[in-house]
Every structure is written in C-alpha cells, then in structure tokens.
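fyi for ur records
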Amino acid sequence: MIFRDILKKWNEKNRQKYFWRINRSIYQLWVSEIIFQQTRIAQGEEYYQRFIARFPTVQELASASRDEVLRLWQGLGYYSRALNLHKAARMIVDENNGQFPINADSWQKIPGVGPYTAAAISSIANGECIPAIDGNVKRIVSRWLEIESPMDTADFTAKVTAFLNEHIPKKKPGLFNEALMDFGSKVCIPGKPDCKNCPFIKYCGAGIHNTVSKYPVKKKNFTKKKKSIVYFVIQHNNNIIMKQRDGEDLWKHMYDFPAYETEGHLNKITPAILKHMDPFQPEEITTIGPMKHELTHITLKIFFLRAKTKSKLTLPKDHHCFSIEKAMTLAKPRPAEKFLDQMKNTYLCHNK
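which gave:
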C-alpha cells in the first residue's frame, strides 16, 4: 500500500503536537472535534482551553445553563455547535449514565455529530476502522485520483470513500485519519500546495500531470441570501432594553436588541419601520449605519436606531432591562456585542 506507507513515514516526522491530543479523554476529543470543525486552530485553541477548564467533564457541561455555555462560546460563531454540545451532554448523562457511544453509527445519533465527526471520534477513541472524511481528506484523494466529479456529487463521495476504505489500516485507524488531516492542512493545502516537498508527488495523478490546481473540482457556486436587521438600541432609565431570541431563528437563544428583520437589503429606514419602535415610546432617534456583517450563507445589512425612552414604560413581553455592564456579560450576536462595546463611551451609557 504505497499511499498508506508514505503517509505513515511522513506522519512519524511531522505529526502535529497539538496540546489537546495529549492524554485526552473521549470527552475532550469530542469537544475538540466540535470546536475545530469550522474554526482555525489558532482561533479555537483559546476557546477549547476555556471550555475544558470550565466544563472538565460531560457531567459538568450537562449541569450548566444554556446561557453560560453560549457566553463561553461567544465570538467563535456557529452557535448551534454550542447548543448541540450542551444538548448532547445532557442526553449522554441522563439517557446513557454518562457513557459515550462506542461506534460511529451510535455517535451519529448524538446532536451535532455528523459522519465525519463520528468517524474521527470512533476511530481515535474506539479503534473503529472507518475513514474520517473532511475537506482536507477530500482534497488529498481527489488530487491523487484526479477525480473529475464535483465535490458535492455522489460519485465523488463514493470514489473517495472506496479509496480510503482500501488504505485505512485496521491497527490505529485514528492515527491514519489524523495524519491525513495534518497532511491536508500543512502540505496538500488549497490554492498553492507544497508539491516540491510532497512525498506523494511521484504517485499523485494531479502532481504528475501538473493539474493540482484543478482539484478538487468545485461544486456549483451558491448565492448568499440577503437579509436586513434594524436594531432598536433603546435606553430606559440608564439601562439597555434587550430580549432573548427564540430557538428557531438566527442566533437562537442569544440575547439581542429588539429589532425589525426582513429579507433582502433595505435602502433606507421608512416610517413603517419606525412604527415598530412605538411600544418603546422613543425620543431623540438617531440612525447609525448601515454596516455589513457576513455569515456563511447570509449577508446582513444592519442599521442601529438609537434612542431614549420615557421613564415610565411598560416593557413589551419577553423584554428586559440590563445595565451596560450586565449586557456585556450576556451571550449575544457579534454585531450587538460590537455595538455595545462602542456604547461604553457614548452618552447612552452615562446617567443623564
């Protein structure tokens, strides 16, 4: 097995010595896989350390409040990962007496765990002989085999899976999977891979034919959705009015300013939009923005309508008043967090 032998030799000299790989428990492995799913290593390391320090066991994660988990995750993005970790921890503790799944199939029944994560955890922790196929692995195999099918096709997936099933060793399959991940992140990278120092170069189809940049064949481009948010940043008795988002929308369960939201990008603030502020009896409305905020599948156009309100006000249902200091500690979307941070030194945060 040329591919497996070359990878093994490369890994013996170049295995990444990430601190979370040392003496890790299955719980720590699971948390690391979730955090680093869609996060750069440099960004995720600090979050991983904080998360494990605060929740060192699955029992402690399960007993934490959802708000606390979200606060700890704030700034990392893809907040559904945090919500699923919390939900899964409670499932593991309450339904399985704190015992973790023993194979990839059972791992996929855990919230937030897909085929790649399930295979990665089970191959490393349980020695299950199953390939963990992420973007790095797809890129390596597509170049080796010169797969012409786009990445999002069944044919591409079948070819990559068959190749890996043929080469993954029964002994230490997790080490094989991690070696592929490391190789894809260090040598066979997107854009301009380090082909000069690639040990596969004599055998890689794309390397031999000098067509590396062609692979993997990209899936069809998608058009990002457009959405507008008009935030109502309202001071009431020197506090800020906020509400908790529900469990189905963008930034679920996080605290946020009251807002008007609509599909598409607004060009201006209309009288009809201002009417949505009437329950707060606003005075001295100031418009700030717009600003853009990019999410994976959505481009947000955000306006901030800043105002004071009368001292005697009955808050709408599910709305709360928080001091600026308390608001800063709540788990909230990044745009709201940035705006609150800027407000510290503005007139809204001073007693007037």
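The beta strands are 225-236, 239-244, 255-256, 259-263, 282-294, 298-309, 319-322. thats all i got for now
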